[in-house]
């Protein structure tokens, strides 16, 4: 079904040896800070379980994509906390995209997420996406499927400047929640095969499964 909700999709690595510091900052400060912004609904964080992807994946659900360009959110990005100023320079290979949830089926979240994302556009292929989701719904352990489409360019902010380079972005993403990481890993070739004839899916930039280690709600 179609949704008016937004989602900020983030993938990144960190400097070697800084994983514990970044995780502690996420747990103790950053996710709660984001969830305090009006319109933020949920924060989820995953760690790479397999496939071709970055170490971390963070997914912030909002009531609408415009929340991610709202004055309250931009004010937060423009005034990074002291701890954020320490952590941001540790980021590597940052990808950050403001998305709208174009299609979503299933209401439950799981302990793992399969992520398949590309830089092109699949917005004109809802029939293929619905067919893919109908097939995936029959697979063992599948709980929810989400199709994201880039909604707006992420603004330049003081926080982004701390990372020392421009962030990458995606044009679209398919996310599939499963019970277990092995189920998410098994779905990656299925997703790739189902989308292979669509031009924007030819060279995915993220093709990985993540173990969900954090879920918080506003």
Short description:
The protein is α+β, with helices and mostly antiparallel strands. The protein is built from six helices and eight strands. The protein has one domain (6-217): 2-Layer Sandwich (Alpha-Beta Plaits).
The largest pleated sheet is described as:
8 strands, antiparallel, barrel
Gyration radius (Cα, Å) is 16 Å
Q: Please give the domain count.
A: 1
State the helical fraction.
Answer: 25-40%
Net shape? globular
- In N-to-C order, the SSE pattern is EHEEHHEEHEHEHE
CATH architecture annotation: 2-Layer Sandwich
Unreliable spans: none
**Overall average residue pLDDT:** 93
List keywords for this structure.
218 residues, alpha+beta, Alpha-Beta Plaits, 8-stranded antiparallel beta barrel, 28% helix, globular
């Amino acid at each position: 079904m179609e949704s008016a909700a937004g989602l900020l999709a983030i993938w990144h690595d960190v400097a070697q040896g800084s994983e514990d510091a970044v995780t502690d900052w996420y747990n103790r400060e950053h996710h709660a800070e984001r969830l305090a912004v009006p319109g933020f609904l949920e924060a989820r964080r995953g760690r790479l379980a397999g496939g071709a992807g970055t170490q971390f994946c963070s997914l912030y659900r909002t009531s609408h994509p415009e929340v991610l360009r709202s004055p309250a959110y931009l004010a937060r990005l423009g005034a990074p906390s002291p701890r954020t100023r320490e952590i941001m320079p540790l980021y590597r290979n940052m990808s950050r995209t403001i998305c709208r949830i174009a299609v979503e089926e299933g209401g439950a979240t799981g302990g793992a997420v399969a992520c398949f994302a590309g830089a092109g556009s699949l917005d004109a292929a809802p029939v293929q996406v619905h067919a893919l989701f109908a097939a995936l719904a029959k697979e063992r352990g599948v709980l929810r499927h989400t199709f994201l489409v880039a909604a707006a360019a992420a603004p330049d902010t003081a926080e982004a400047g701390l990372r020392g380079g421009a962030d990458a972005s995606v044009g679209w993403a398919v996310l599939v929640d499963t019970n277990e990481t092995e189920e998410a890993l098994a779905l990656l070739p299925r997703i790739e095969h189902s989308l292979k004839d669509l031009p924007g899916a030819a060279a995915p930039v993220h093709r990985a499964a993540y173990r969900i280690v954090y879920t918080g709600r506003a």
